[in-house]
Design goal:
The complex is a heterodimer of chains A (229) and B (410). Chain A is an alpha/beta fold. Chain A has one domain: Rossmann fold (3-Layer(aba) Sandwich). Helices cover 33% and strands 27% of the residues of chain A. Chain A is built from six helices and ten strands, in the order E-E-E-H-E-E-H-E-H-H-H-E-H-E-E-E. Chain A has a six-stranded mixed sheet with strand order 6-7-8-3-9-10. Chain A has a four-stranded antiparallel sheet with strand order 2-1-4-5, with helices on one face. The relative contact order of chain A is 0.20. With 410 residues, chain B is of the alpha+beta class. In chain B, the strands form two sheets. A six-stranded mixed β-barrel of chain B has the order 2-3-8-5-7-6. In chain B, helix 10 crosses helix 12. The chains are: A alpha/beta (229), B alpha+beta (410). Chains A and B meet through helix 2 and helix 3 of A and helix 1 and helix 11 of B.
Chain lengths: 229, 410
C-alpha cells in the first residue's frame, strides 16, 4: 500500500428530489481518503447510501454538493465529455450484473476500452490475451456472454474494468449474483490485483465474509460514515 | 481529426457487431420494409415518367417525327416539296423523310344508304405517299383490320379508330358509328368536291391526333386540291433524337427552307413538357412524402432498438465511451438499413418490375406504357431517402443517448 491518497472526498452530499416537498438525503456530507493500493469495502444495510456513494465516486452520477478528487484531480468540475474520458482512462467499474455487451465476444468486451482509447489491435492484442489468461478464461475468447456462467461473466467484467490499467477500481456488489465458489474466485482475483499490481479498489458488499479479502471496511448508515474496521 | 476517426471506427465496430450478431429476422424485416418504401418512391415516379414518355413517343412516332417543316404562319403550303426532300435526305443522320398534304372535310356514313341513319362530322384528311410514309410512320403494324394504302390507290382510305367508331373508348366527341374495312363513306371536302371512299384499313396508334384522321394517297388528294409539288408538312425521322439540334442548324442553312418554320420534337412537345412539369411536381411531392415515411420508419426502428438496448447504452457510457460514438453507431445502423433498402429497391424495380412491364406493358389510352426511372429522379430519391434515414436515426439516438447513465442502466 502506498502513502499517496488516490481518492479524497469532502462533505459529499447527494439529495434526490431536491426541489420536491420531500427530498431524500442519500449522502449527508461524507469524507473519505483512500490510499493507493488499498482494498476497501463499503458496507451497510440497504438504503444506507453505499451504492449512491459509489456512483458519485465513479462519476456515474452528479453529487448535489461536495468535493471529489481522484488521482489529484478535482473531478466535480469536469464537463460530461471530460468525465467520459476520465472514466475511460482512470476508472474501472465492475457491475453487480456484469454489464457485458451481449453482441460482443469475451475478447471484444474486454478490448472495448482500449479500442475506445484509439489503440490498434496489433498493440492491444497481447494485452487482452494476457488478461484473459489471468482471469482464467483462456480458450473462451470467442464465446458470447450468454454462453458463460455468472462467475465467468463477472471475470470478463473484471478483465474489462482493469484492461486500461485504471488508477482506481470500483466494484458494486460483484459477488451478489454468484454462488459461493464463483464469488470466492472473483474476490481472490480482486485481492490478487491489489497484492500483485497495487490496484486500488473500493467494493460495495453485503457479505460479511468478504471482509477477509479487504484491507479496510467502512460502514455507512443513513448516508453517513458510521464505523470503520 | 484523429479522435473523430477513432470515434467513427469504434461506432462502425459496434454497429457491425450489433447488426451481425443481432436478430437476423429483424434485420431482414427492416431491410424489407425499407426496400418497399424506396420501391414505392420509385414506382409512382416511374409510372409518371412512363406515361410522359409514352405520350411523347406517340407524338414523335406518329405525328411530328424528330423534325417537322411547316409553312410559315399565313401560308397554306410548302412549295417545291420534292426539291426540299432531295436537299435534306442526304444528311448522314436522316433515316427517312415523308410529306403530308392536309385539308379538312366532312365525313358522312350513310349506314343503310337510304339517308335515314347518317353519321357525319368534320375531320382532318391527310394525303400521304404510302411508300415514304411507311418508312417514317409505322401505321402498317398498327392496323386493326384491312390493309395499308398502296401507290395508285384512288377512292381508297384508311380510317383512324377514334372516328371509325366501335373500337373502344375515344376522346373524339363523335364517330362514324362502326365503319369497317370494305365499307364506303362519303367525304365532302372544304372546297366543295365530294368523293366516295372505300375504307381499306382501320388503324389505332393511341395517339389521338393520328387516330382522329382519315388518310388517303397524296395523288388522290392532289387531284382534289389541285396541288402538285406542295405539301402541308414535311416530317423528318432521324437515326437518333440527339441529332435534332444539328438537323435544325443544317436545315436553316438551306435556301429552299428559309421561309418555312422548322421545329424539332422538343418544341412540338411543349404541351407534353407542361404535363411533364406537373408530373415532376407531383413526383417531387410524393418523393417528399415517401421520404418522410422512410424517415419515420427508420425513426421507429432505431427508437425501438434504442429502447431495447437502453441498458447497453448505459454500459457503454459507464465504460467511458462518448455519446457521440454511441450516436454514430446508431446512425451507421440506420444508414445500413437505408442503403440496403435503396440497393435492393432499385434492383427489384429495374430488373423485376420494369423488366416485367417491358414484356407486359400497361395498356394506357395514350399508348403501351412501361415505367421508366429517370436518372435525375433516382438521384433525388436517393438523396431524400438517405437524408430521411440520417434524420430518422439521428433524432432518437440524440434523445436517448443523452439520458443519465443510471437512468439508462435501470
Amino acid at each position: 500500500m502506498g502513502e499517496k491518497y488516490i481518492l479524497k472526498t469532502k462533505n459529499l452530499k447527494k439529495t434526490y428530489n431536491i426541489n420536491s416537498a420531500s427530498p431524500v438525503k442519500a449522502l449527508c456530507g461524507v469524507n473519505l481518503q483512500l490510499k493507493e493500493g488499498e482494498f476497501m469495502a463499503l458496507m451497510g444495510r440497504s438504503g444506507s447510501g453505499k451504492s449512491t456513494f459509489l456512483h458519485q465516486l465513479a462519476l456515474l452520477d452528479k453529487p448535489t454538493s461536495g468535493y471529489i478528487e481522484i488521482d489529484g484531480k478535482d473531478v466535480s468540475k469536469l464537463s460530461e465529455i471530460e468525465k467520459a474520458r476520465f472514466r475511460l482512462e482512470t476508472i474501472g467499474y465492475i457491475f453487480q450484473d456484469y454489464a457485458l455487451l451481449p453482441e460482443l465476444s469475451v475478447y471484444e468486451n474486454i478490448a472495448l476500452p482500449l479500442m475506445a482509447l484509439g489503440q490498434r489491435k496489433l498493440k492491444y492484442d497481447g494485452e487482452v490475451n494476457k488478461i484473459i489468461k489471468r482471469v482464467g478464461l483462456d480458450g473462451r475468447e470467442n464465446y458470447l456472454p450468454a454462453d458463460l456462467s455468472g462467475g465467468e461473466q463477472q471475470r470478463v467484467s473484471i478483465a474489462r474494468a482493469i484492461i486500461n490499467k485504471p488508477k482506481i477500481l470500483f466494484a458494486d456488489e460483484p459477488t451478489a449474483n454468484l454462488d459461493s465458489e464463483a464469488a470466492e474466485i472473483v474476490l481472490k482475483t480482486m485481492r490478487e490485483l491489489v497484492d500483485r499490481y497495487q490496484q486500488t479498489i473500493i467494493m460495495v458488499t453485503h457479505e460479511p465474509d468478504d471482509r477477509k479479502y479487504v484491507d479496510r471496511v467502512v460502514w455507512l448508515k443513513d448516508g453517513k460514515f458510521y464505523k470503520e474496521e | 481529426m484523429k479522435s473523430w476517426i477513432n470515434n467513427f471506427k469504434l461506432s462502425l465496430f459496434l454497429a457491425v457487431k450489433t447488426l451481425w450478431r443481432g436478430d437476423k429476422w429483424s434485420l431482414v424485416l427492416t431491410v424489407f420494409i425499407m426496400l418497399i418504401v424506396f420501391l414505392n418512391l420509385l414506382f409512382i415516379d416511374a409510372i409518371f415518367k412512363g406515361i410522359a414518355i409514352t405520350m411523347d413517343n406517340g407524338k414523335i412516332n406518329f405525328q411530328y417525327g424528330e423534325v417537322i417543316i411547316e409553312p410559315a404562319t399565313g401560308d397554306q403550303y410548302i412549295q417545291q416539296t420534292n426539291n426540299i426532300v432531295e436537299a435534306i435526305r442526304d444528311f448522314y443522320y436522316i433515316k427517312s423523310v415523308t410529306t403530308h398534304l392536309r385539308t379538312g372535310a366532312i365525313l358522312i356514313n350513310d349506314k343503310n344508304k337510304d339517308g335515314r341513319d347518317v353519321a357525319s362530322f368534320s375531320a382532318g384528311v391527310i394525303g400521304i405517299d404510302p411508300q415514304t410514309e411507311n418508312q417514317s410512320i409505322d401505321l402498317k403494324s398498327h392496323l386493326l383490320e384491312g390493309r395499308y394504302l398502296r401507290k395508285g390507290d384512288y377512292g381508297k382510305a384508311m380510317l383512324g379508330s377514334d372516328i371509325a367508331g366501335g373500337y373502344g373508348s375515344s376522346v373524339f366527341p363523335t364517330d362514324l358509328e362502326g365503319v369497317r374495312s370494305g365499307d364506303k363513306i362519303m367525304v365532302e371536302y372544304n372546297n366543295g368536291i365530294s368523293r366516295e371512299y372505300e375504307i381499306v384499313g382501320i388503324y389505332k396508334t393511341k395517339n389521338f391526333d393520328t387516330d382522329s384522321k382519315i388518310i388517303v394517297t397524296r395523288d388522290d388528294l392532289n387531284s382534289i386540291l389541285g396541288t402538285t409539288n406542295e405539301s402541308s408538312e414535311i416530317i423528318v425521322r432521324l437515326m437518333e433524337k440527339k441529332y435534332s439540334k444539328q438537323a435544325l442548324t443544317d436545315f436553316s442553312k438551306i435556301n429552299l427552307l428559309r421561309k418555312y418554320d422548322i421545329s424539332d420534337y422538343q418544341t412540338k412537345l411543349a404541351f407534353g413538357k407542361s404535363i411533364n412539369k406537373s408530373f415532376d411536381m407531383i413526383g417531387m411531392i410524393l418523393r417528399i412524402i415517401g421520404s418522410l415515411v422512410a424517415g419515420l420508419v427508420i425513426f421507429i426502428i432505431i427508437f425501438v432498438d434504442i429502447v431495447n438496448r437502453r441498458k447497453q447504452i448505459g454500459i457503454l457510457k459507464a465504460i467511458g465511451i462518448s455519446e457521440r460514438t454511441i450516436r454514430y453507431s446508431y446512425i451507421i445502423q440506420g444508414m445500413f438499413y437505408t442503403l440496403l433498402g435503396i440497393i435492393f429497391g432499385y434492383v427489384l424495380m429495374q430488373f423485376g418490375i420494369i423488366g416485367f412491364f417491358k414484356s407486359h406493358p400497361i395498356n394506357f389510352p395514350m399508348g403501351d406504357m412501361v415505367p421508366f426511372i429517370k436518372k435525375e429522379s433516382l438521384k433525388m430519391s436517393v438523396i431524400l431517402f438517405v437524408l430521411a434515414g440520417l434524420i430518422g436515426s439521428f433524432v432518437p439516438s440524440l434523445k436517448e443517448v443523452h439520458k443519465k447513465i443510471l437512468l439508462l442502466m435501470k
